[in-house]
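Hey team,

Filing this mostly as a record. A colleague (T.K.) asked me to run one chain through the structure pipeline before their review meeting, and I want the input and output archived in the tracker in case anyone asks later how it was produced. No errors, nothing strange. Just documentation.

Input sequence:
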Amino acid sequence: MPRTTRLAIPGDPHDPEGLTALLHRYLLWLETHNFAANTVKVRRLQLARFLGWCEERSVTRAADVTPDLLERFQRHLFYYRKKDGQPLSISSQSHWLTSLRGWFAWLKDQRVLERNPAVELQLPREEKRLPRHALSESEVEAILAQPDVSRPSGLRTRAILETLYSSGLRRQEVLSLEVTDLDRPRRVILVRQGKGNKDRFVPLSERALAWIDTYLAEARPRLLGDQPTASPLLFVTHGGGATHPNQLSSQVRKLLRRAGIAKAGACHLFRHTAATLMLDHGADIRHIQVYRP
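Output structure:
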């Protein structure tokens, strides 16, 4: 549907309350109020195609346009695919919706409509660009193989790395996890008071959960020693202490060097990699942003 070639405005131009006649009035108003020629051209194209979409649904009058109908059109833009199979960019979708909002605001100002059905139409959020630096899957596996899992501290490090890789959490979020935050039946973990002071559930892979369970069974009791209830934290040091974030980053950098990987960064590399691999495997960036805001 969305194209940039000239398009005849569909519908009956002789019905004064019809969308077609009202669009002609709006375009004339834009021209007489000295809007840029390209602005008028683009709005004509976009709104004419919106009218065509409405006509296919037997909606021909402004009074019949509802907030629900506009939300349906917004979903149509989101799922629309061009000839090359690519979706409309977020900026293109926003441009279309901005044209709609401008037209219906004008209809309200002209007292054609008592209420503006587009007043609550929200523009899609612009995509957040993912970082360029990320690890390949083989590089991740090389790093994960470095900790000595025969030792409690090595098993703890492996479980932390698996959690970072699976969840894309920040290092402080991982180090602040408590044992009770694990929800094994749902395969999620509760992140308390993350960025923005919001709690959220984040999914974990079966492999990450398996390493966490191994750590809980074999390493954590040995780290706690004779103080099994010394700390509610999931990942503890000897005696139940907490790991400092900088200490973890230093440890991860050492593991990168041992694995022969010369990339800058430490814990955040796993966060970037988790997001990149999710995209590579077909995840929607907006879903990723829910888990890693």
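Quick notes for T.K.: The domain at 19-109 is CATH 1.10.150 (DNA polymerase; domain 1). The mean pLDDT is 86.
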